[in-house]
Design a protein that fits this description.
The structure is a single chain. The chain has ten helices and 23 strands. By secondary structure, it is an alpha/beta fold. It starts with 26 loop residues before the first helix and ends in a 23-residue tail after the last helix.
Length: 467
């Protein structure tokens, strides 16, 4: 058994041989293993004193936890710790012969003609277990994608590269710029049908929104996808999301920045959401992403490999490529709350920020005592935008006195644009210009279907696609 391709539930790759001293185990556990002729990464059967039998691969001990516990990766993909005092017998089933060389670039031939370029940025979708901490660690190669998801051979010829391995909470506007430049380079040099960006889910809607503004014309779709559950878990959504993203990259008639994720808690469908309209609405559900104030662009059946459009309005593919990759880091998104200290807003002015997006209440309100402060920011040259914490529906600052006074103070309404999208757009705007009048004009322009005049009932939770 070669451990670089262990097939308990998913392929697993190891890069170096560990000695018993390196394994992190206590002398008691090391003595147990050595006396039974087994070592780290061997496949073993373990009989416990209470009669329970377990089978799995011995893993190095995480840096935290009980030192006298043996860690096994079970056949179902989960890891379990077993106190050494509970173990009656341990028996070697297969010895691990760990390959130290890295896997060479894939030379496999696929049945597909369409080419899709994958860009890895990190996150759960492209991950393995980090045995130093017990957490998952991202990595991403074309060979790994084919080995984990053989269905891809029938869909696309995949090229893959990783531009950075970070968790999505570490993503910054400067890295949005890097992604945009890389996408431009890929379309220019490799001419794929589409690009898939593997990304952590927590801030994926920010990045997908950013690319919607940065890449305004393209020959094909730019598809963000991620996973709520890592590939070493039997309930992982990673494979199906990658399949759906690849189908979208190949078959979608549009050239937009979109997110493809599960459309239900089951494995029956995937939904294609506009990056500027999507939001992560649940911490762990597979169908965490929802389109806000519009229907998804399309649905994908991963089994028939069919993409079905849900709207007729989208950006057409273009032979031209227009990319404006610059973003400003001097824009902030601030949530209003009762009792908010006005000096919070003054902090951003003193730090030289160009723009501020406020998540106000309902139709776009804040405490009336804050209005003069916000008006002062506008007079000092900041662009202040009002979005709503309600998500569904539109800002309307002409209904109540507070809203009218905010408008008179120079605060811009975001309409039904999401707060996160408003923040990303304003960051992009100030990446293009520092002139206030030009920035206001550019912010008001509908660039990527990020806002609309109507909010139909079918867009609200309870529509068929929500079920």
């Amino acid at each position: 058994m070669e451990v670089n391709c262990v097939k308990l539930k998913n392929s697993h790759r190891l890069w170096k041989t560990l000695t018993m001293e390196d394994s992190g185990y206590s002398p008691r556990v090391r003595e147990l293993l050595e006396s039974n002729g087994v070592k780290v990464f061997d496949l073993v059967s373990v009989q416990l004193k209470d009669g329970i039998n377990l089978r799995g691969i011995i893993l190095p001990r995480p840096s935290t936890g009980e030192r006298d516990a043996l860690v096994l990766k079970l056949e179902n993909g989960y890891n379990v710790g077993i106190l050494v005092d509970r173990i009656k017998e341990i028996r070697l089933e297969e010895e691990a012969h760990v390959k130290q060389e890295q896997i060479l670039e894939s030379t496999r031939k696929t049945l597909a003609k369409a080419k899709v370029h994958f860009i890895g940025t990190g996150g759960t979708i492209a991950s393995r277990v980090d045995y130093a901490t017990g957490a998952v660690y991202p990595y991403f190669t074309a060979e790994e994608l084919y080995s984990m998801i053989p269905e891809l051979e029938e869909i696309a010829l995949i090229e893959s590269e990783t531009i950075f391995n970070i968790f999505s909470e570490d993503m910054t506007p400067s890295q949005w710029s890097q992604i945009a430049r890389k996408i431009k380079q890929v379309f220019e040099q490799n001419a794929p049908a589409g690009v898939v960006v593997a990304h952590g889910t927590d801030t994926m809607h920010y990045s997908a929104s950013a690319i919607a503004f940065a890449v305004q014309k393209a020959p094909g779709p730019i598809v963000f996808t991620g996973a709520q559950r890592s590939s070493d878990r039997p309930s992982s959504d990673a494979s199906l999301n990658v399949i759906g993203a690849t189908i979208t990259a190949v078959d979608a008639p549009f050239a937009e920045s979109v997110i493809v994720m599960h459309g239900s808690v089951n494995d029956d469908k995937l939904l294609v959401h506009r990056g500027v309209r999507a939001r992560k609405m649940h911490t762990s559900r597979r169908d965490a992403f929802i389109s806000i104030n519009e229907l998804p662009l399309a649905s994908v059946d991963p089994y028939s490999k069919k993409l079905s459009l849900l709207t007729k309005e989208y950006k057409q593919k273009s032979n031209d490529l227009e990319v404006y990759p610059e973003f400003s880091e001097k824009v902030a998104l601030v949530k209003f709350y009762p009792g908010m200290d006005p000096s919070i807003f003054e902090f951003y002015r003193d730090k030289g920020y160009h723009g501020l997006v406020i998540e106000g209440t309902g139709l776009g309100h804040v405490n009336s005592k804050l209005i003069s402060v916000l008006g002062g920011l506008v007079k000092d040259g900041m662009v202040v935008v009002m979005a709503s914490q309600c998500l569904w529906g539109s800002i309307n600052m002409n209904v109540y006195r507070t809203g009218v006074e905010l408008l008179r103070a120079g605060v811009l309404p975001a309409g039904n644009m999401l707060p996160e999208t408003s923040y990303v757009k304003l960051s992009w705007v100030f990446g293009q210009t520092t002139e206030v009048e030009e920035a206001v004009k550019l912010f008001k322009k509908n660039i990527a279907f990020e806002t609309s005049e109507r909010n139909e009932y079918k867009f609200y939770p309870g529509a068929w696609w929500w079920q």
